[in-house]
Design a protein that fits this description.
Elements: E1 6-7, E2 13-14, H1 16-30, E3 38-40, H2 42-49, H3 53-65, E4 69-72, E5 78-81, H4 86-99, H5 104-123, H6 128-144, H7 149-165, H8 170-191, H9 197-218, H10 222-240
Antiparallel strand pairs: 1-2, 3-5, 4-5
Helix pairs in contact: 1-3, 4-8, 5-7, 5-8, 5-10, 6-7, 6-9, 7-8, 9-10
Pfam families: FCD, GntR
Organism: Nocardia aurantia
InterPro entries: GntR_C, TF_FadR/GntR_C, Tscrpt_reg_HTH_GntR, WH-like_DNA-bd_sf, WH_DNA-bd_sf
């Protein structure tokens, strides 16, 4: 394939492994290489890129660390593609939060700032009733698993993620998916699998509050909907953060 090296912005050469990783990263993110695609074994890729095996392995190591590929050994193994998702994003974010010793309360506060903005945007949309029906179905899904703490947390995450997505801003939606992943894992980590009549009552109250939110959105009562959801998030925050959990540091062993 010829010399794969090129110069970076400072005049120095870009390392060949980084060049290979960049080409594959672009193909994965753009969708040219679909999720689950098998790229082949190492010898296939060595021949394809015209580089040595150590060079290729370094490129694959970069992509594997980014969560974009998995390298499996054996006859049925090979290099497999993974499209970026909120789990990978949350893992990276959790590392940064861990390094800064950010509290779980701070993470939850960020979500509490974002969601009311989405509520306001949704309430102002002309076609908001379609979104309300989607959200009602997600509340029904939560109610169906209300007795299972783990399943209920996952269903709740789906509701919050869709609420923000319906607000219409894709960047905010991606950020919220990341925050929801971190918060959901934190709640699971500190809450354990224990269930009580009290916690079941809290969940039922939460669902009633969600349904009230949808009533306000449906009639276009944006101000009231925002105020209601701000109060809701404040209560939820006190319940969740009343656990003994403290920092994102405690979450890292849940990202394997």
């Amino acid at each position: 394939m010829g010399d794969m090296s090129k110069h970076n912005g400072r005049g120095g050469p870009v390392e060949v492994p980084q060049k290979i990783a960049a080409r594959l990263r672009t193909a994965i993110v753009s969708g040219e290489l679909p999720d689950g695609e098998r790229l082949g074994h190492e010898p296939d890729l060595v021949q394809r890129f015209g580089v040595s095996r150590p060079t290729l392995r370094e490129a694959l190591r970069i992509l594997e660390a980014e969560g974009l590929i998995t390298v499996a050994r054996g006859l049925r193994g090979g290099v497999f593609v993974h499209r970026p998702d909120q789990r990978a994003t949350a893992r990276s974010a959790a590392l940064v939060l861990q390094a800064r010793n950010v509290s779980l309360a701070d993470v939850f506060e960020a979500r509490s700032l974002i969601e009311p903005l989405a509520v306001k945007a949704l309430a102002a949309k002309r076609n908001r009733r379609h979104g309300v029906e989607e959200l009602r179905a997600l509340i029904d899904a939560e109610e169906a698993v209300i007795g299972d703490p783990v399943a209920f947390a996952a269903a709740g995450t789906a509701f919050h993620a869709r609420l923000v997505a319906l607000g219409g801003n894709q960047t905010v939606s991606v950020l919220t998916e990341m925050l929801d992943e971190v918060v959901t894992r934190a709640v699971s980590a500190v809450g354990g699998s224990a269930d009580t009549a009290g916690s079941l009552t809290v969940r039922r109250r939460g669902l009633r509050s969600q349904r009230r939110l949808l009533e306000l959105i449906e009639v276009g009562a944006g101000t009231e909907a925002v105020e209601h959801w701000q109060a809701h998030m404040a209560v939820v925050g006190r319940v969740l953060l009343g656990q003994e959990a403290a920092t994102v540091v405690d979450l890292m062993h849940h990202y394997r």
